[in-house]
Design a protein that fits this description.
The complex is a heterotrimer of chains A (about 500), B (about 325) and C (about 325). Chain B has about 325 residues and is mostly helical. Chain B has helices at about 5-10, 15-30, 40-65, 70-85, 95-120, 125-145, 155-160, 170-185, 190-200, 200-205, 210-235, 245-255, 270-290, 295-320. The chains are: A alpha/beta (about 500), B mainly alpha (about 325), C mainly alpha (about 325).
Chain lengths: ~500, ~325, ~325
């Protein structure tokens, strides 16, 4: 069993994007190190470099002080490193047992998989989480049939099944309920006693303070702080995670929840239910910047996408008093809706096409037949300059743009249509400070122009600074509505975690 | 996602669909041709079906691993033309074995070429094997520009009349294949196959040697195509460069009927074997049914399209129901 | 792999010029005789025109992404050529009717392809390959193996002959140029074209930006079928004869031409100009081989290898290791 792993000055880029510019980490046997950072800070990349899935571009890994090199997942596994992946590494069509033992199945004399041993050992592993399953879970259930929390548990069991010395838990508690989390933490304590080391990647403060011994903070691809957990508190950790430069100057000072009461209701939802959402109801006034908060994956995407007609739902939605039910995004667009999706590379942009093509994508029909491309170029240029879009030219591919400018293109394509309702799914994710400021100014301006904006952000200070009201989603429901005096950082965090009040602030 | 009774069964045993289809087609064939199970007819049928069965086995494994092999027919043609020209009508039965191994070598090489481009250079399987199918077909035509050549009559007779234990030779070949598959699927390699076909990225993260597994499936497919070519040659007794062409689509259809998902990771080899036999029986049925000769080609092609469409239609209804 | 810095259509055109110059150096080439060179160049372009029209539909489905391809193009060409032949039967007044029927028949077959691909989720390769068989079967049903008909004089006049004796450029070439301009307009100056590129790059983004992906898919395949039909119409107008294998030799080259022209086989990027350049390259290769008196088999081998080399350069996918 190894005793320590050190990660020194790791550099990693994906194409033109720098994911890590100076990644550092030290972990020793018998301790839990929390790897902390905001979304896009490089946490997952760090895990991938350690477990051999990604090849590092610079820096080194030291195992027990000796430089090592992991050219493949197999070499990392051989060195005793196991990972519980954020995007599960399970094969949906195979069973629980098959997934857990893949590549390490116990064999009989003929080289065949020894079913009996496999099943027995699988049951042993499943017993570790006994009492926390909702379904009747046993070895030959196909993984595809399991709910997300049980899939996560199988992923965990798979990682520890070969008795590794280092376990990387990458957001492993994201889908687990409190009972399962407690059981996992009991196991982590056992593992520590057995001499294992654990890297706990998470942004859930409560859990970090419960289980971690040390911490290491990543921000924008650089490690900015590390030390013992008992020497730091949550406030200080959060400060390390977010930008030092304050963008609060661009945000509204005081929440102005009273001003909108007289304004008419632009968008209203009643008991909106999708496959995941369980009955969401809210009212948004004309010109309001309504915030949606909560941890990622609590239904925010479902809410925004169903309002846009991308997901089927039941329940009532009214636009200016008239009931609407969009069956596809086109219908929503025609009624003046716009959606800026959460994953701009996969959902918001045509990556290899030009900036012009991206800006005009929803609007070509307005330019006649044959298309008046010159007019389109003029309009696109106008939108681009009004957004202060820094580009080499309209014909350049959108992949040549920085994150912030690419996001401007996503918003720009909708602004060209003068929408009346804007649905934004974490629009400032992966965007630099300067562009963020421009976005805030833009959102304020749009709201003053009378556009209704539903705005999900995973960054608390944005919600507090920009929005009059914030609906916090937790477990597929609106946990609470915060406005005015109750709209504070502490309340936001507490509600995101499902607690009723409090949180250190 | 809870699966209801019938759905759960169908998911666990994809070959069930193939079994049903096989049963149905057997019944219909029996009605039209009452002496179907008589020794001679059975033997004759199975002889004709064997080449496509062999092809379907190789195709099944490639598809299980998440790929597809459009060049199988061309590889079989290649083997056929090589055998027909090299052995010739006056060839000596002893030299045969040398040529049999040569054929297998051709299959392995062709498969390795496919595997290299797809697994190591990471090219798309469909377009790559489409390109190689043209290449191999050209090679076959080069070796034998006009149908002809042949194998010694004694060899063809051997194939025709072999009935160990009064059962068609083909039965034993199928039996051996199924036994090999039974073993293979119970080893780690078998699990790797399903993993790579099920979700290659997850398999990679789990340290499954994805590239090597993918490469191996194409080599196996090439090998099976070579076997198919040998069986074809023994069946027809002569050579024809275009002989394998239509067989490719049939092999894919057999795999689909067999219950394997074209996207990979689901199914086995038993289903496609049944699917290949079913396909053969359906062709029989069409011959026996009172269909105008001119309509035969159309009907056969239409049935293939319907067989390919079947899983899609079933899924459509399933989606509508939920 | 080194990055290719010249745009593919330009590279293809350069290749075409080089090949043409090479052909001049051959024994019965044009040598230094400019007049003969001009005549041969025009001949190449005239031959290329037909492949060019047939490859247009292929260009569209490949741009539309999701492994789009149309393997039924060859049979559609044969079908529509035969339909035209029979319907026109030498009468000038029926030409327009025949053209209409041709386009409709092609569109219908393409539409069926689209339905199978979009609603039944059958992979484009498999679906169009299956339909190719159905169409071939339909041809046999219609013709009973024997085609009786005749081309109308006006067709030969408009397609095969030059516009004016002074110009000496066969009309086919002019038609192709006009066709090329229309294709450019379609791809770059219509909403359909912009949407086509969009769904080829990223269907999710396209859908979330209001594109009706289903309708686009159906329309693309239907249009591809219609264009293949148009190709058949032109072909029969040029040669004046039909036979059951008329369209088949155009199928593989139509796909290879699209690839040579730089249209990404994964979709979302490309142009018809590229295909036109690719078509010329392929016609030159074929013609060179014919001049060198190479048999059909060598032609196939060369074409297969060409496509393989091309996709090795242009078509490599993301590696598993990041």
């Amino acid at each position: 069993m190894a005793e320590s792993l050190s990660v020194r000055n790791i550099v990693k880029h994906y194409g033109g994007v720098v994911a890590l510019s100076d990644g550092n980490l030290d972990v020793q046997a018998r301790e839990v190190v929390a790897l902390i950072g905001a979304n896009g800070s490089g946490k997952s990349t760090m895990s991938k470099v350690i477990n051999g899935v990604a090849v590092l571009d610079g820096g080194q890994l030291l195992l027990d002080g000796n430089p090592v090199h992991f050219p493949s997942p197999q070499t990392a596994k051989n060195a005793g490193i196991a990972t519980v992946f954020q995007e599960l590494s399970l094969i949906p069509q195979m069973t629980v047992a098959e997934n857990i033992w893949l590549t390490r199945e116990p064999l009989n004399a003929l080289g065949q998989v020894d079913r009996k041993t496999v099943n027995a050992r699988t049951e042993e592993l499943l017993a570790l989480f006994k009492g926390t399953f909702k379904t009747d879970l046993h070895s030959d259930v196909p993984v595809a049939a399991l709910p997300p929390d049980e899939k996560q548990i199988i992923e965990i069991l798979k990682a520890i099944s070969f008795d590794p010395w280092l376990v990387i838990l990458d957001e492993a508690t994201a889908s687990l309920d409190s009972r399962q989390v407690q059981r996992l933490f009991d196991l982590v304590t056992q593992w520590k006693e057995q001499g294992k080391a654990i890297i706990f990647v998470s942004h859930r403060m409560e859990e970090i303070f419960r289980i971690a011994d040390k911490y290491s903070v990543l921000r924008n691809g650089r490690t900015v702080g590390a030390g013992n957990i008992k020497d730091i508190n949550e406030k200080q950790l959060v400060k390390l995670m977010i930008e030092k430069e304050s963008v609060l100057g661009f945000l509204r000072g005081e929440a102005r929840s009273d001003e909108n009461v007289e304004k008419e209701i632009a968008l209203e939802a009643e008991n909106l239910t999708t496959e995941y959402l369980q009955g969401v109801s809210f009212k948004a006034h004309k010109g309001e910047l309504l915030g949606i908060g909560g941890l990622r994956g609590q239904g925010q995407r479902q809410l925004l996408h169903s309002l846009f007609g991308d997901l089927p739902y039941s329940g009532t939605v009214k636009l200016f008093g008239q009931e609407v039910h969009f069956k596809n995004p086109r219908e929503a667009m025609r009624k003046g809706f716009a959606l800026v999706p959460g994953d701009r590379a996969k959902e918001g942009l045509l990556y290899i096409r030009s900036i012009l093509d991206n800006l005009l994508l929803p609007s070509w029909r307005r330019y006649g037949l044959p298309l008046k491309v010159d007019k389109a170029k003029k309009n696109a240029a106008q939108t681009g300059s009004s957004l202060n879009l820094k580009m080499a030219g309209l014909e350049e591919p959108v992949s040549s743009l920085s994150g912030g400018n690419a996001q401007k293109v996503v918003i720009g394509k909708w602004l060209m249509r003068e929408p009346q309702v804007l649905l934004l799914d974490d629009p400032t994710k992966g965007v630099d400070v300067g562009t963020k400021a421009e976005f805030y100014a833009l959102l304020n301006r749009l709201s003053e122009e009378g556009k209704t904006i539903l705005f999900y952000s995973s960054a608390d200070e944005e919600l507090i600074g920009l929005c009059d009201r914030v609906l916090v989603l937790h477990d597929a429901r609106i946990r609470i509505e915060l406005a005015g005096k109750t709209l504070t950082r502490g309340n936001l965090i507490a509600a995101s975690l499902g607690a009723s009040n409090g949180g250190p602030e | 996602m809870k699966l209801s009774g019938w759905d759960a069964l169908a998911a666990r045993q994809p070959a069930l669909f193939a079994l049903v289809m096989l049963g149905l087609s057997l019944v219909i064939n029996l009605i039209l041709q009452p002496n179907m199970f008589a020794r001679e007819t059975l033997n004759s049928n199975m002889r004709v079906f064997l080449p496509i069965i062999l092809l379907a086995v190789g195709q099944a494994i490639v598809i299980l691993g998440g790929g597809i092999d459009i060049s199988v027919g061309a590889i079989a043609s290649n083997v056929n033309t090589v055998l027909a020209t090299r052995i010739g009508l006056e060839g000596s039965p002893e030299a045969i074995w040398g040529f049999v191994f040569l054929s297998l070598g051709i299959g392995l090489l062709a498969g390795a070429i496919n595997g290299f481009f797809i697994a190591y250079l990471r090219l798309q399987p469909i377009i790559t094997t489409y390109a190689t199918s043209f290449l191999y077909a050209g090679l076959a035509l080069f070796i034998l520009p006009n149908p002809g050549g042949g194998i010694p009559a004694s060899m063809a007779a051997l194939y025709r009349n072999s009935t160990p234990f009064n059962l068609p030779l083909a039965f034993f070949v199928i039996l051996i294949i199924l036994l090999i598959w039974l073993y293979l699927s119970s080893t780690r390699y078998g699990k790797f196959l399903y993993a790579v076909g099920g979700k290659a990225e997850a398999a990679y993260e789990t340290a499954v040697p994805v590239t090597r597994v993918q490469f191996s499936t194409y080599v196996i497919s090439g090998l099976m195509a070579a076997f198919s070519g040998i069986a074809l040659t023994m069946l027809s007794g002569s050579g024809n460069a275009d002989i394998g062409g239509p067989m490719t689509l049939n092999s894919i259809t057999a795999v689909v009927i067999g219950g394997n998902a074209l996207s990979g990771g689901v199914g086995g080899v038993t289903g496609p074997v049944m699917g290949a036999i079913t396909l053969g029986i359906i062709q029989n049925i069409i011959s026996f049914a009172d269909i105008d000769t001119w309509w035969e080609t159309f009907v056969k092609a239409a049935i293939i399209v319907m067989a390919l469409a079947a899983p899609g239609i079933v899924n459509l209804f399933r989606r509508r129901r939920t | 792999m080194k990055r290719i810095s010249i745009s593919p259509p330009v590279a293809a055109l350069l290749l075409a010029v080089i090949l043409f110059l090479l052909s001049g150096l051959l024994p019965n080439g044009f040598g230094s005789n400019l007049d003969v060179a001009r005549a041969q160049a025009l001949n190449i372009l005239r031959l290329a025109a037909f492949l060019g029209v047939i490859a247009a539909g292929q260009t569209l489905v490949i741009i539309s992404g999701s492994e789009g391809i149309d393997l039924s193009a060859g049979s559609v060409v044969t079908l529509t050529a035969i339909l035209t032949y029979i319907l026109v039967n030498g009468a000038d007044e029926r030409v327009l009717l025949a053209l209409l029927v041709t386009l409709l028949a092609g569109a219908l077959i393409g539409f069926i392809n689209g339905v199978g691909i979009t609603f039944l989720k059958i992979s484009p390769f498999v679906m169009t390959l299956g339909m190719a068989g159905v169409v071939s079967g339909a041809i046999i049903v219609i013709t009973h193996g024997n085609v009786v008909g005749k081309v109308a004089p006006i067709m030969t006049r408009l397609i095969a002959r030059p516009l004016s004796p002074n110009l000496q450029i066969p009309n086919a070439i002019l038609i192709w140029i006009l066709f090329g301009i229309l294709m450019w307009l379609l791809l770059e100056r219509t909403t359909f074209g912009r949407n086509l590129f969009a769904i080829g790059v990223n269907r999710v983004t396209a859908r979330l930006s209001g594109v009706d992906v289903t309708r686009m898919n159906l329309a693309t395949y239907a249009l591809a079928g219609a264009l293949a039909g148009f190709g058949g119409f032109l072909l029969v107008g040029n040669t004046g004869v039909v036979h059951l294998q008329l369209g088949q030799p155009f199928l593989f080259p139509s796909i290879a031409a699209v690839a040579v022209g730089g249209t990404l086989l994964s979709g979302g990027k490309g142009s018809y100009w590229g295909t036109m350049a690719g078509v010329i390259v392929l016609t030159l290769i074929t013609s060179l081989l014919t001049t060198m008196q190479m048999p059909e088999s060598v032609r196939r081998i060369v074409l297969g290898a060409t496509l393989l080399i091309l996709i090795s350069i242009y078509g490599r996918q993301r590696s598993l290791r990041q």
